Amino acid sequence: MHLIFLIVNLLLLLYFAWGAIYQFCFSLAGLFYQPLRNIAFPAPSDIQAFKHIRVYIPAYREDAVILHSSREARKQQYPESRFEVEVIADQLQEGTLEALRKLGIKVTPVHFEKSTKSKALNFALQATSEEPDIAVILDADNIMAPDFLRRVNYHFHHGVQVLQGQRAAKNLQTGMAMLDAASEYANNHILCRGHRVLGLSARLAGSGMAFSYPLFKTAMAGIDVVGGFDKALEMYCTQHRIDMVYDELAIVYDEKVSASASFARQRSRWIAAQFDFAKQYIPKSLPALFRGNVDFFNKAIQMALPPRLLLPGLLFIGALINWIFGTSLAWFWTLAFVVNVASYLLALPSFVFSFKNLHLWLQIPVAFWATLKAMMRMKEARKKFIVTPKTVVHPNPDQT
User: Fold this and answer.
1) Which strands form 106-110's sheet, in the order they lie side by side?
2) Please, which pLDDT band fits residue 114 given cuts at 50, 70 and 90?
3) In this structure, is residue 251 part of a structural domain?
């Protein structure tokens, strides 16, 4: 029994320490990221300088927010003749559909026995013969910064095929929302800033994304997943050596969850997708690594990382148990915990450390427990799409 404990203890340490070191390396690299400023945008009269963009907004039973976000989507600093907004309406009310059409929004109604974003997007992609140059993907609650499409246009004129903008919080009203916003900020820092500095592709976040339309249509045709279609796109792009670029100043405001129940629902979807992709793609990524495709290998092993919100808690518990039992690995557990905490100190936004936001730290045990519950619900998340309730929230640019 003692030998089994030692082996399990060592294996868990190796796994969690790998997660801590991986996160620390990219957190440190993220400090050297330089945002692209002072872009020279074309004059509005130079119509040929603006690529044709279609903004897709899949909306599943999200009548409460879709009218507001669609109205805001039309307010881009971009020639009206060169972009359009299409809502993929999955089980929206008839009154909502009619109101969207009056706003000049293209509405594509869909209805599936089991709804997913990948099904909705594929239906819309196959339902049109008029193909734009660029596809932009938003969530139903997202609000684009006024210059978002102009920045997208700039990148695609300079050879970019896939772009991830910064998803910034538009609500910080509750401690849980602030914690969710801090987590998003850390994701941007580690998986976007840090990766770009080290020459690797940024993550795709599921919204605030832009793709070359032919590439997006081809990639989506092979994707039919309950959750994590963005991760499937990451795998497709890196397998085909397509670089995924990040622009921190191309901002999309995203509503953060305000209650622990919603937090758990959301994380169950994400964690289930993450581990499913790890199982599917790590075996494929090893031969690719020997062929020089480091990007694909990195994305595949990224899927096997311990959940970021659980890792510090698990390392702390592991260190505590090892000190209590006086094992020879106690110092190594402690060092891994310190490295993990250091990575958060590098990656988290400044508002986390403000005295007036000390109540945010009280949400950490709640989030830890919610993430554990999320892991228990992974089986359910694999079978059906779990929607996160949203409300109309007006973004505050100062929160970026």
Assistant:
1) 106-110, 83-90, 53-60, 134-137, 209-212, 162-169, 244-254, 143-144
2) confident
3) yes
Q: Write out pLDDT tens, residues 20-65.
A: 999 999 999 999 999 999 898 999 889 999 999 999 999 999 998 9
Concatenated DSSP letters for 163-229? EEEEEEES---SHHHHHHHHHHHHHIIIIIIIHHHTT-PPP--SSSEEEEHHHHHHHHHT---SS-H
Q: 3-class secondary structure for 32-83?
A: CCCCCCCCCCCCCCCHHHCCCEEEEEEEECCHHHHHHHHHHHCCCCCCHHHE
Same domain flag for 238 and 331: no
Same domain, 169 and 318: no
Range of the domain at 163: 47-274
Confidence of residue 108 (pLDDT cuts 50, 70, 90): very high
- CA–CA gap between residue 25 and residue 14 (Å, rounded): 16
| CA angle, 151 then 157 then 159, to 5° | 110
H/E stretch holding 344: helix 330-347
The predicted-structure confidence for 246-296, as pLDDT tens digits, reads as follows: 999 999 999 876 555 555 555 666 677 788 899 999 999 999 999 999 999
Digit-coded pLDDT (tens) for 284-297: 999 999 999 999 99
Across 224-233, 348-357, 372-381, 389-398, which has the greatest mean pLDDT?
224-233
- Report the largest interatomic distance among the alpha carbons of the chain, rounded to a whole angstrom: 76
Q: Is the domain of 143 the same as that of 249?
A: yes
Nearest Cα neighbor of 256 from 246, 247, 245, 267 is 267
